[in-house]
TrEMBL record:
Name of the protein this chain belongs to: Lipoprotein
Signal peptide: 1-19
Keywords: Signal
Amino acid sequence: MKFRGILPLLFTVIGLASACKNKTSTTDSNPPKADRTEMDIVVADTVKPVPVESPVSDTSNESSSKVLDSIDFKKYQTEAPVSSGKAAIDWQSYPEAKTFKTRITEGYKNEAVDFAGHYVSVVFGCGAGCVLGFMVDVRDGKIYALPLGEENSCFFMEDAALMVPDSRLFISAVCKEAAESEKRYYKAYLWDEEQKSFGKIAESEFVKP
């Protein structure tokens, strides 16, 4: 009788010990996985990309600098650019410009006068080798189209839309006959403040000897 009473108790103890062992083994070999979403958030918040300098951009900047140095902007110098105060944009002065209303509004708001003493230019791409743009007069908010677009682009374009804040000279495009060519040719215009229009100008009139 005594032996029969001990056996059930013994089996119970053995069962409990086995269960504890299995539980410990399962916990050790399969640790709980962290929530992937939380891990991604931590990585996104703590890991920042390291900027890498590109030798290509350095070469491009050097080339642009040489082009600017070869152009006589001072020959067509205007008064010093306006540094404060901007009139509201007059959309009625150029209704077609409303197609690019967001671009023009943001550019005019954030940029300083960068052409002919009174104008803020807004230039943007319109496809491969194509550039469009407008300028806004800070004195009255009137909009004018810049001489850009397909008719003022070229296949081997080295630069485009070159200007300085105190000159009436606008370089629409700096071109080459071929990619490996050293010789450049220009598509350029001169702003007439009285007529409020651009007129073509020969490169012999502004390229430094």
